[in-house]
Amino acid sequence: QVQYVESGGGLVQPGGSLRLSCRASGFTFTTYGMAWYRRAPGKARELVAAVAKSSGSTNYADSVRGRFTISRDNTKNTVFLQMDNLKPEDSAVYYCNAGFKHAVHDNSWGQGTQVTVSS
Prior knowledge:
mainly beta, about 45% strand, 4-stranded antiparallel β-sheet
């Protein structure tokens, strides 16, 4: 059974930082790229950042490039998202899923972790 457990969200002021974690289980983690997505109220879910299965390649949405860094620890089946210089428009629920360009487990999303950027 595929499971994703996201954590690390919270309330932060503009310009602040957060580090999100997502622990995955139920599939062979090392054979998939991994990605972070976010969904803001009234908007569609969007891919924010992705990392290849061997951490050799990464990709970022234009809106976060230079501020967010994705990484993974294959020994712990965990993917991270370091978010720096946060902006109010980064406020959303953040999710992870397998896949570099598209969600592999589109029917198995975790509960997500809420990020709120506000003064």
